[in-house]
Amino acid sequence: MIKVQNLRKVYKVGGEKVVALDNISMHIPPGEFCCIVGTSGSGKSTLLNMLAGLEKPTKGKVSIAGKMVSKMTEKELAIFRQQNIGFIFQSYNLMPTLTAVENVAFPLMFKGIDKKIREKKARKMLKEMGLGDRLDHKPGELSGGQQQRVGIARAFVGKPKVIFADEPTGNLDSATTEQVMKMLLEISRANNITFVMVTHDPELAKMARRVITLKDGRIVSDTRDGISIIDEDLLLAQHDETETFTSENTEPDKNITKEKAEDTNDENA
Amino acid sequence: MKISDLLRLSFDNLKRRKGRTFLTVLGVIIGTCSIVMMVSIGVALDKSYDDMLQNMGDLTLIEVYNWSGNSDVEPLTDEVIDGFMAIEDVRVATPLYQPRYFNSRLVSGNNDKYRSWGNIRGIKREALEVYGYELVEGRFPQKNDKDFTVVVGEFFAYNFENTRKKYPNNYIDAIPDENGVYPKPFVDVFEDEIKIQGYTYTENGETVVMEETLNIVGVIKQDESKGYETYSGIIMDIEDLIALEQEYMKKNDIRDENKGKKREYDQALVKVNDIDNVDAVIETIESYGYNTWSATSYRNEMKKQTQMIQLILGGLGSIAMLVSAISIANTMTMAIYERTKEIGVMKVLGCELKDIKNMFLAEAAAIGFLGGVVGLIICYGLSAVMNTVGASLMGGGDTAISIIPLWLALFGTGFSTFVGIISGYVPAVRAVKITALSAIRHD
């Protein structure tokens, strides 16, 4: 479902270059629940943004369902997201003026679905998620956990091919976190939706079948059911490069001038 | 995205910031008012000029002459004048005949003691009514009336002198008393026999050579725009008048230069159905080689002037509109800054770029439209107040100071909506450029 090839992302901060992601390749098959884990600054959020087409990679390719997301224009991306992608935010990002039902129906409105039909679907979705008594409440009148469930309902209501979630439990307490996580696993399995989620919590990530661990912008482990699926040699090679990369990072002015120029060109393009 | 959803979203957003929306709409209201009021003053000015011109001369009347001296241009014969009738929008064309040789006077009473010198105008009998004469009393001559059936000017009767009395009692003036009642003139145009006499001067004084009795059937209202004949003249069928003159010439042995030739007239009158068609008719007639005169020639000059004034007034009015356009742009830009995250979220959720743009354009257009409609309602109020106050200041004249015709009302609201869309365009394009990433970043 999702294919990533040699992904690289370089940010320019001031005059300096920061390599956020480097040499990322992976394949997530349809229906898989995948967690991308890493500490803050590991590049996990950047990776998610690029998978969802919110950011353009400096190098490399991302494709979803056979479509080259990394090459799409803004216009094409909007339509692609409308048809194929759901998104769950850390800070919920519900529309403050809309009720729970209207919020869940929001993405269906962009698809041009009739108000009656889309709100019927939204109501059904919210009831399934145990929010049957909160249908006409505005986000301000809901708890964090309830708001995130509305956010989840919004992502799932259109039955997209892929859902991306950026720290969906980041603002929730541990009890609610577990509840929400179980819910995510359950619904995506039931609907056979490919689910990609970013978290900083390795314990939480363990609940997923597929876990990709990122460190300093590189994949350091990729496991399915706890078994590594990375070629050991490749992993080794990556480790070597990681060290080079780290030293590069600490001494940015040393012998990378040529590469720098190359990257800058890419970024501008 | 459906248009209904788009509009609902836009209105919800406007409602969310009621105070700011109100202030921006207020700006548009002021802008619309200033433009509409300024233009309405210009329109009223234009109208008052038109009214003024209406008094100067009948605006739908064209006088036609043949001054060219060019032998290629046919003289104004009956055929040519009948030809003018065929021109589009012409209601009637008639030759105008003023006798050249005919010395005449009007007499009435015993021994012709009441005498008058009437100005006689000859036009086609069937043209009388169309020509625009207004009856005060009686009727217009009909086709089967006998010869010398005429209508006379409103004060025709007061022009008679009693030759037996000395000044100042020989005339009765057409001046009403304090009750508005006119004094009774010496002659009654319907009851008394009034004759027209042709005379010559001999050693013995005036000698009457011929005489006809007039059959007066109507009195027409005085109308300066038509001519002096409406005051105290006689309007006679052109054939009757020519017959009178011919008889007079025969009696006095005056040779007719045009004998045997087609009759030629010095002047013809063409009446057009509407002011706005006059120019086109003039153009057609002039293309035949004739000269014309019409009160509209003044009108066109004045139109140019009022258009200039209107332009200046409108320009002054648009300054306020410009300011309100800037305020709309400002409001929309503010709204976009505030809603950056929201727009990002919408993009992530799959809202298409054109929908985002249209949403903001709809908001800006709604501000413009709302301001336009409310502004227009206020304008109608202002206009009414100005006209009432203005009328009392100017001593009850019916000249309006401000007129808002339908086209101005439509233009006012249309323009304010248009200004809204234009001012909203740049912010809307900016909203489209907000990256989806800001949904995550902008906390």
Account of the 3D structure:
By secondary structure, chain A is an alpha/beta fold. In chain A, the strands form two sheets. Chain A has a seven-stranded mixed beta sheet with strand order 6-7-8-3-9-10-11. In chain A, strands 2-1-4-5 form a four-stranded antiparallel beta sheet. The longest helix of chain A is centred in the C-terminal third of the chain and has 19 residues, at 232-250. In chain A, a hairpin with a 2-residue loop joins strand 1 (2-13) and strand 2 (16-28). Chain A has nine helices and eleven strands. Chain A has a single domain (2-268), classed as Rossmann fold, CATH 3.40.50.300. The radius of gyration of chain A is 20 Å and the shape is globular. Helix content of chain A is 41%, strand content 25%. In chain A, helix 5 packs parallel to helix 6. Chain B is of the alpha+beta class. Chain B has two domains: 3-56 and 300-441, no CATH class; 98-264, no CATH class. Helix content of chain B is 50%, strand content 16%. Chain B contains twelve helices and 14 strands. Chain B has helices at 3-16, 18-56, 78-84, 127-131, 229-232, 238-251, 275-287, 296-338, 340-348, 353-393, 406-433, 438-441; strands at residues 61-65, 90-96, 104-108, 114-116, 120-123, 135-138, 149-153, 161-162, 194-202, 205-213, 215-220, 234-237, 267-272, 291-293. In chain B, strands 8-4-3-9-10 form a five-stranded antiparallel beta sheet, with helices on one face. Chain B has a five-stranded mixed beta sheet with strand order 5-12-7-11-6. In chain B, strand 9 and strand 10 form a beta hairpin. In chain B, helix 1 (3-16) packs across helix 10 and helix 2 (18-56) crosses helix 10 (353-393). The longest helix of chain B has 43 residues, at 296-338. The radius of gyration of chain B is 35 Å and the shape is elongated. The mean pLDDT of chain B is 86.
